[in-house]
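pasting for the record
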Amino acid sequence: MSRRHAREAALLTLFQLEFGADDATAENASDLAIDEVDGIKEKDLPYAHALVQGTRAHLTEIDEEIARLAKEWKLHRMPAVDRNLIRMAYYEMRYQEEGIDPPIAINEAVELAKKYGSDDASRYVNGILAAMQKSV
C-alpha cells in the first residue's frame, strides 16, 4: 500500500469537500480525487477514505488547535491546500487509532505542500505542524 498516494487522494477530496460538497457528494469528490492521483491502487483507497472521514469527524477540534497556534494567519485566510494538509496531518498524529509518528505525518504533508501549495507552503505547513506536534 502506498500511503503517499492515499494521502494525496485524501487531500484532494478534503479540498473539494471544503468548497461546497456535502456528505451526499463526498463519494463523488473522492472518486474525482482518486482519478487525479497517478499510481493509486485499490488497496490504497481504505486509508484515503479513513483519512477523509477521520479528519472531517474531528474538524472542530483540529481547527481550534490550528487557530490557537497559527497566530499570523486566520484559519479562513490560509490557502485551502495548506489548511487541509495541516488538518489531515494533525488528524494522523493526534486522532488516528493507528498512531503515525509525527515526523512521518509532517514529512508527508510537507511533500504534498511542495506539489500542491505555493512556493512558501512547505515551510509554513512544516512550521505549524511542528508546533502542533508538541500537543500530541
